[in-house]
Amino acid sequence: MAPQTRNQFPKVVIERDSDSEPSSSEEEEEDQEEEEVVESENGERKEEALDEKKKGKAPITISLKKVCKVCKKAGHEAGFKGATYIDCPMKPCFLCKMPGHTTVTCPHRVATEHGVIPAPRRNTSNPLEYVFERQLRPGILPIKPAFIIPDRVNCAVIRYHSRRVTCLEFHPKNNNILLSGDKKGQVGVWDFAKVHEKIVYGNVHSCIVNNMRFKPMNDDSIYAASSDGTISCTDLETGISLSLMNLNPDGWQGPSSWRMLYGMDVNSEKGLVLVADNFGFLYLVDTRSNNKTGEAILIHKKGSKVVGLHCNPVQPDLLLSCGNDHFARIWDMRRMEAGSSLYNLAHKRVVNSAYFSPLSGSKILTTSQDNRLRIWDSIFGNLESPSREIVHSHDFNRHLTPFKAEWDPKDPSESLAVIGRYISENYNGAALHPIDFIDISTGRLVAEVMDPNITTISPVNKLHPRDDVLATGSSRSLFIWRPKEESEPAEQKDETKIIVCGRAEKKRSRKSGDKSDDDSDDDKFTSKGSKFKSSKPKWKLTGCSNKVKR
DNA sequence: AGCCTATGCAGCC
DNA sequence: TGGCTGCCCTAGGC
Questions:
Q1: CB of A164 within 7 Å of some strand B atom
Q2: Are residues A113 and A444 in contact, defined by beta-carbon separation less than 8 angstroms?
Q3: Is the CB of A431 under 7 A from strand C?
Q4: Strand B: which residues 358-377 of A lie within 7 A (CB)?
Q5: Residues ≥6 apart with Cβ < 8 Å to A228
Q6: pLDDT higher than threshold 50 for residue A25
Q7: How far apart are the first and last CA of chain A?
C-alpha cells in the first residue's frame, strides 16, 4: 500500500507581516519537483535509474546497493523519503510492534478504525456491577452527542518555555488561564484571551515539573510535583513558592538515592495532596498543615517509578496509580498498605497514565508504552483484562515528554479522548504529527488535528473543562485550538494570534545569566525545523519578549 | 548542512 | 541487583 497524502489544510491564511519572503512562483516550482521525486520513489527505482541515463545525466556510480540506515544491511532503505517515512523491513512494525509487516501495511494503520482488539465479554455476577448498571448507567447518555473538535489553532506562544513543556492545567474558574510546566522546573501562566499576557516563573523547581494541580478552595495557588524531589505550592499572582516536602534534604548523593516526584493528585474531601516517587512510594501531605502525614507507602514495585496518580471523581476513597512496573493499580484509600491494592491492571510495558473517567469515575483509560490505549468499561465489572485495546502510535522516546491519553471532561458519554501521535504522516508534502481524537468506545479515530506550522511532536494535550478548547504543549511552545467556525468563510474571521518569544535561550552574556529584560528577536515562525516543503505558514506574527520572573 | 547532546528504558550479562 | 549498551521518525544549538 502506497503511503498516501492525506487531508487538505483549510486555507486559513491570514496575513504576513513581512515582505521578505521568497517569491512564491519559485517555491511552487520547487514544490512540483519534489512531488515528482516522491512519486517516482513510490514506483520502481530501476526505471528511475534508466530515466536518468536517458536524460544523459552522469550516472556516477551511485552504488545500486541500497544500505538501510536503520539495520545497516544492504538491499533496502529506510528513513524519510520526502515527508514519508519508510520502515526497515527487518524490524517489527513500528506501530503495533508485531513482526511480519511494516507500519505502512500495518492493519492497524490501514483501517480507519485504528485497530481495536475486543476483549471477550464475560458474564459477571458481581453485585457492584449490578448496582452500577441500575444506578449510574442511566445517568450516562446512551446516545453520543456529536463530538465538537477544536481543530484550528486560535493562538499560540512560540518558544514560550526555555525547555520542553511537560504538563498543562486549565484554571478551574478563569476560562482563559493556562498553566504550563517545563523540563527546567519553570511554570508558565498564560492568559490566552489577552494573548500577550503571560509570565514564566523561573524559581519554582530546579528540574522537571511532572504534574500540577490547583489548590482546592484557593484557585490562586497551585501544587507542583517535580523531579527535584519537592512539592511546591506557588501563588500565581506573585510567583512566590513554598516547599511542602523535600525528599532530598541532603542534596545530591548520586542517582541511587535521589528521589523524584512524578504522579500527583489532590483529594479535596480528605484534604490531602498525594504524590509518588521514582522508588515506588506514595506520600500524603495534609493541605492544612502543609506537612507530610504518616509514612511513605510502597504502592508499586520497589525501586520503580510511579508516574501517575488519580483520585476517583465520585468515590473519594478510590485511588488509581500507574508506573514503570507495567501496572495500573486501584486502591482503597482507607487501607493503604504495600500489597493491598484492590486490582492490578497488567500492561505489556510502562504505563504512562491511568485516569478514571471524569464524570462517573467508572471507566479507566490507560496509555502504555506498548503503543496501546486500554479501556476498562466499568471498575465494578471484570477487571481481569481490558474491555478494549486500541493500537495507537505513542512510542517512548527519552527526549519527549511521555504521551498521555486524556479524557474530554465535557463529553457526557465519556468516550472521547485526545492524545498526540508520535509517528508522522505525509500531509501535503509535510511530515506532521497530528493530535488524535479517539472514540474509546469503538476505537474509531474521530479526528486528526494538525497545522502545517507545527512540525514538532505534541505529546502534551489537555481539553478544557468547560469550553471547546484544546491546549497543546509541543516542544517549548503552547497552542490553543478552537473549532473551526463553519458559518464564516474561514479566510479572515478571527486572526490566529501567534506570539514568538526569544529565538533561543540567550547566551549568558550578562553575569546573572538571566534574560528577563532582553528584547527578544521577533523572528518568523516558519516550519524551519521541517526538512520538507509544506503549505506556506502565513500566520500573522507578533513579536514580544518573554518575561521570566525569578 | 551536519554534528552534538540531553538522558529513559529494556535487555543483557 | 547492578552496570553496561543500544535505541526506528527529537529538537535545537553551534
A1: no
A2: yes
A3: yes
A4: 369
A5: A185, A205, A206, A207, A208, A248, A260
A6: no
A7: 54
Q: Do residues A158 and A477 touch, judged by C-beta distance below 8 A?
A: yes
User: In angstroms, rounded to a whole number, what is the distance separating the alpha carbons of residues A102 and A94?
Assistant: 7
- Classified as helix, coil or strand, A39 is helix
**A88-CA/C4-C1' distance, Å:** 27
The nucleotides of chain C lying under 7 Å from a protein CB are 1-2, 7-14
Cell readout for A505 is 535561550
pTM: 0.82
Summary mean pLDDT of chain A: 80
In b/e form, how buried is each residue of A153-171, taking b as 16+ CB within 10 angstroms? bbbbbbbbbbebbbbbbbb
Q: Tell me if A352 sits within 8 A of A402, measured CB to CB.
A: yes
Phi-psi category of A43—alpha, beta or left, where left has phi over 0 and alpha has psi -120 to 50? Answer: beta
**What would the grid cell of residue A236 be?**
500565581
State whether residue A344 is helix, strand or coil: strand
CA of A208 to C1' of C9 (A): 24
As a whole number of angstroms, the distance between CA A460 and CA A283 comes to 25
Q: Are the C-beta atoms of residues A149 and A482 closer than 8 Å to each other?
A: no
- Through-space separation of residue A315 CA and nucleotide C2 C1' in angstroms: 42
User: What are the pLDDT digits (tens) for A236-279?
Assistant: 999 999 999 999 998 888 888 899 999 999 999 999 999 999 99
Taking the C-alpha atoms of A472, A475, A477 and A478 in order, what is their torsion angle to the nearest 10 degrees? 10
Answer whether any strand B atom is within 7 A of the Cβ of A305.
yes
Which pairing describes strands A435-439 and A430-432: parallel, antiparallel, or unpaired? Answer: unpaired
| Minimum CA–C1' distance nucleotide for A477 | C11
- Say what the pLDDT of residue A155 is: 95
Q: Which nucleotide is nearest to A93 (CA to C1')?
A: C8
Name the one residue in this structure whose C-alpha cell is 533496502: A76
Q: Which residue is nearest to nucleotide C7 (CA to C1')?
A: A397
Which nucleotide is closest to A323, CA to C1'? B9
Q: Sheet harboring A343-346: ordered strands across?
A: A306-311, A318-323, A327-332, A343-346
Place of cell 473551526: A484
Q: How far is the CA of A198 from the C1' of C8 (A)?
A: 38
